[in-house]
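Researcher: Go.
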Amino acid sequence: MRTIRKFEFLNARTIDEAVNTLAAYKGKAWPFAGGTDILRMMRFQPLPENLYPEVLINLKTISPSLEYIKEEDGILSIGALTKLVDIANNALVGERYSALANAANKVASPQIRNMATISGNICQLTHCLYFSKPDNRFHCLRKGGSECPAQLGDNRYCSIFGDVNGCVAVNTSDIAPALIALNARIKTNKRMVNAGEFWDVRVPGSTILDEDEIVVEIQVPRPPPDAKSVFMKFSIRSSIDFPIVNGAALIGDGVARIALNAVAPKPYRATKAEEVLKGKTIDETAAEEAAIAAVSEASPLSFNKWKISVAKAIVKRMVLNTKSR
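Model: Structure:
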């Protein structure tokens, strides 16, 4: 029988109140926005006892609101608590930042998108099948254990680009590769970080955020007028599931940025594929060469070599999809 957990629920009125509470509880407080990931963790209890929170800090009560979408001086600014459904349906985002709109539209189900926030999606825990098993059935490396059961077990959906201190779990954010491809920046209460540097590779870390740090805004520069951005995702049940592989690309007007996710412990920037495309006309040959380059450094595990083929296909299709506007 699962433990009935007691915790406090604090409605934060300001950013300072939220981060001061986080600091005071030293890792025993969790920020709460849409709650889709937290509710799953609290219900199925995959974590060891010492990792659950004593307080949940409601960020939705912060004033002024952190829920907005606006563009000024060529920069799209999105408040951290903006719901994914609003990003997916925003006409401006869809027209100028299509990879981000498409990524938001591919997260989970409509019910989840109506609740989930952009900051929650990029801050979700890196995980695998073993990490997520209910009742902490597998006390793995990411939870402070001594071994990674996926190394010799079911690693079909794990990393094809190496491990972190033995852990082969992957980042499954759909928003992450879109932000990296679009050269976005993530603003916290402490600093401004390039999207490509936001995700951490430590165990058990998933992002660079300190205990007293929260995301407050995402900033995306307007892409060059002749560049096109795309997002693609492969999963077992269309958008409902976490991705097996997903990716985003911004190509054209002298720009080539390609990012993959769910293939490594953090989003994977396919720089070798970008280099292949420099100075080339986008055609079948260029797209195939970029796809091969994107996975040239892959080192699959015993049961996930097939993910290399999926990643190649996604890169090739993304590149070809940017051929015409």
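Model: The chain is about 30% helix and 20% strand.
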